Amino acid sequence: MNQPPLEERYAAVKAAVADACRAAGRQPGDVTLVAVSKLHPVEAVAAVARLGQRDFGENYVQEALAKQAAPLWAAGGACADLSVRWHMIGHVQSRKARLVAGAFASVHSLDSRKLADAMESKLAAEDGRQPVLIEVNVGEEAQKSGVMPHNLLEFAEYAVEKCPHLELRGLMCLPPVFDAGEKARPHFARLRELAQMLRSRLGLPLAELSMGMSGDFAAAIAEGATTVRIGTAIFGPRPPKQAAR
Ligand SMILES: *Cc1c(COP(=O)(O)O)cnc(C)c1O
Q: CATH assignment of 6-71+83-235?
C-alpha cells in the first residue's frame, strides 16, 4: 500500500492534534507535538524540521546523540538555521546517564534512583541542568519500566531533594494498551490525577504531562496532555531495529 507523502502525513497530524484540542476546549498551542523519529534516518528528521517541526523524540541514546551531531544542523549545514529540540523518551540505562544528562531539551523517562543519582553527579560536576519528567508505570506492569504509582511521591521527593540539578517538570506515561484510542483514557486520567497529587504535596508547578502516541493522542489531549509523542502517524512505519543501541 502506498503511503501518503511525509508532508501530507505531518499536516494531517498537526490538524488532528488541533482538532483534539478544540474538542477538549483547549488551545492548539497548549499541546507540544514531539515527533518521534527513532529508527528513522536523520534525513527524515530534517525533512520534517523543514516543514516547521522543532521537537523530536528519540529512544536510543547512541542513535539520538549521533542524530544530534549530524553535520546537517551545524554551521554551514542544510538545516543550520533550524533550532531543533531533542527529547529522550526511551528507557535510559544508568550506565548511559552521563551521556544523556545535559544533552536533551527534556528527558521524559526518569524512572529510578540509580538513574537520577548518575545524572545528578554528572550535572553537579559541570553545574549543568537537565529538565526531566518522571515516567510512571500507570498500568502497574511488572515487565515495564516506570515508577509504580504507590512509589511516586517518595521517588519525586527524593529527586527534588537529592538531585537539585534535575529540573522536575512533570510526568510521562505509556499506557498498557497500545493503539487503543479511548480505551487508554483511564490511564491518562490516572497520570493527570497523580500529577495533581504531587503538585499539592510538593508545592511545585509540575505542569508537563507527556502522554499520547499515534493511536491514542486524542484521548490523551482530552485528559490534559501538554505533550504528545507521535511517531508512526508522521514518519510512517519504523524500519526494524537492527543491533542493540
Ligand atoms: C515509539 C514511541 C512513541 C511513538 O509511538 P507511535 O505509535 O509510533 O506514535 C511514543 N512514545 C514512546 C515512549 C515511544 O517509545
A: 3.20.20.10
In the reported structure, the alpha carbon of residue 157 is separated from the centroid of ligand 1 by a whole-number distance in angstroms of 28
Going by pLDDT thresholds of 50, 70 and 90, the confidence category of residue 163 is: very high
Q: Which residues line ligand 1 (CB under 6 A)?
A: 36, 38, 59, 89-90, 174, 213-215, 229-233
- Length of the chain, please? 245
Q: Residue of the nearest CA to atom 10 in ligand 1?
A: 229
Question: In the chain, where are the structural domains located?
Answer: 6-71+83-235
Cα distance between residue 98 and residue 147, in whole Å: 21
How many CA atoms lie within 13 Å of 221's alpha carbon, on the beta-carbon side? 27
CB 89, CB 57: distance < 8 Å: yes
Predicted confidence (pLDDT) at residue 241 exceeds the cutoff of 90? no
Of 91, 94, 103, 33, residue with least CA distance to 67: 103
67, three cell numbers:
542524530
pLDDT in tens, 76-131: 999 999 999 999 999 999 999 999 999 999 999 999 999 999 999 999 999 999 99
Provide the 10 A C-beta neighbour count for residue 157: 13
